[in-house]
Amino acid sequence: MTKMETIMRTAPVIPVLVVEDVAHAVPIARALVAGGLRVLEVTLRTTAALQVIHEMRTVPGAIVGAGTVLNCRDLDAAMGAGAEFIVSPGLTERLARTAQDREVPFLPGIANAGDIMRGLDLGLDRFKFFPAEASGGLKTLKALAAPFRHVRFCPTGGITQASAPEWLAEEAVLCVGGSWLVGKGAPDVDAITSAAFKASTLAG
């Protein structure tokens, strides 16, 4: 089992986090871990993201990665902040090769068979299906998974607490990415912990 697959199998949901304020990093991470979600994807969509990764890494039990990694510069910055895995919305050979050279678990985004085949050529077989709902939803994923029997996915984009079990029931799906767990603004720790617990117990 690869390091990326081990991360994907840690919990059924990987929280996809957009954190604007560094002061919110530790409370959010503690609440998610307390609720049973240890793998945290901090998207590089805010100016605070790198510091947020650094702060979340101080929370016992948290496995913190960087999302929205678009290029090698992003990857190196994320690793410098302490990111333990890298997630990208797409797949380029340069980014994949750099991740392999850095020996960091890498989950690139795919949306079609051509993307998957390029990934396989690069030695990758674990992918983020993104944007999941906008790309045709579960019906499309099932169609893509059929000819690629050994490939496994983390669908992300438009998935909710209500729809997640149906995705997780698909054999090719190891986990899903979820943005519903943490709202904007100051974190409501009790609400986050509760949402995380519900997500951590989801099954297909």
Write a structural description.
Helix 2 (about 25-35) links the parallel strand 1 and strand 2. This protein has a four-stranded parallel beta sheet with strand order 3-2-1-9. The chain has a three-stranded parallel beta sheet with strand order 6-7-8. The protein has a two-stranded parallel sheet with strand order 4-5. The longest helix has 12 residues, at about 190-200. The chain has about 200 residues and is of the alpha/beta class. Helix content is about 40%, strand content about 15%. It has helices at about 5-10, 25-35, 50-55, 70-80, 95-100, 115-120, 135-145, 165-170, 190-200; strands at about 15, 40-45, 65, 85, 105, 110, 125-130, 150-155, 175-180.
What is the number of helical segments per DSSP (H or I, 4+ residues)?
Answer: 9
**Strand element count:** 9
How many separate domains make up the residues? 1
Mean pLDDT: 97
The name of the CATH superfamily reads Aldolase class I
Spatial separation of the terminal alpha carbons = 21 Å
The CATH class assignment is Alpha Beta
The sequence of SSEs as H and E is HEHEHEHEHEEHEHEHEH
How are the secondary structure elements laid out?
Layout: H1 3-8, E1 13-17, H2 25-34, E2 39-43, H3 49-56, E3 63-67, H4 72-80, E4 86-87, H5 93-102, E5 106-107, E6 109-110, H6 113-121, E7 126-129, H7 137-145, E8 152-155, H8 164-168, E9 176-178, H9 189-200
Parallel strand pairs: 1-2, 1-9, 2-3, 4-5, 6-7, 7-8
